[in-house]
Design goal:
Blueprint (H helix, E strand, L loop, with lengths): L2 H19 L10 H32 L4 H6 L1 H14 L21 H13 L1 H8 L2 H11 L6 H15 L10 H7 L3 H11 L4 H14 L8 H20 L1
Helix pairs in contact: 2-4, 5-6, 5-7, 5-8, 8-9, 8-10, 10-11
Length: 243
Amino acid sequence: MTKEADAGTRVDEARAWDARLGWAFGLIADDPAERAAALVRLADARRNVLDALNRFNESWRSTSLLGGHEQRQDAAFRQAHERYVEAATHLLPDALWNRPYGDIRAWAGLPYALLFLEWEARYPQAWTRHAKKWGTKESLLRNVAVADHDEAVRAKLTDLVEIVVQRPYRCKDREYLRVARAVDSEDLRGRLETAARSDNPWARRHAGYVLRLLDRPDVPNTVHVWQNWIAAEAGRETGELAR
């Protein structure tokens, strides 16, 4: 495939994603009314997926006696499965699952992966109520933690690290260290240093942890290392208060 053809394919794929899920950017809008409207669209999409899944399950039960190969070749069974797969491409986070193997930086779904992470970062209660998938959050953070993103993606990931270190810890937030290491910069470190000097105890601890491990790339980002850091920081703060 020529570079021109490859670029054209990527544009077509990006347009297809936007046609299916462009409304989802309303989930992170500043306007509460726009967010509410996006949640309605999300609920509609989820109902469509559940309906397609139920129809697929019915087809699976009705053809189960055919045997594996014959069942997969059954026209009604295949059609039900295709409809379920198609419905899932209109819903977050389902559309982000089963990403094609390859460079995530070239994936047309990357803007929507970032959207899903930003939704959890900015509106955690709504995310938890309507789309809680900790495993998806974890896998996306690990996947996007690569070097050489374009400037817009680097800026978005930098913003997300800054947001997350300033809030009480949520499940899988520790994975943001991978992202910080991938997009390390003077700008990011400046934001983290500001957070580490703030009056917010969570920001001081989390930002301090990220800064410490940015300077120590050989130190693994394990639960043990994280817990030891939190315990040490809590002890230090208690000691300062007791003086």
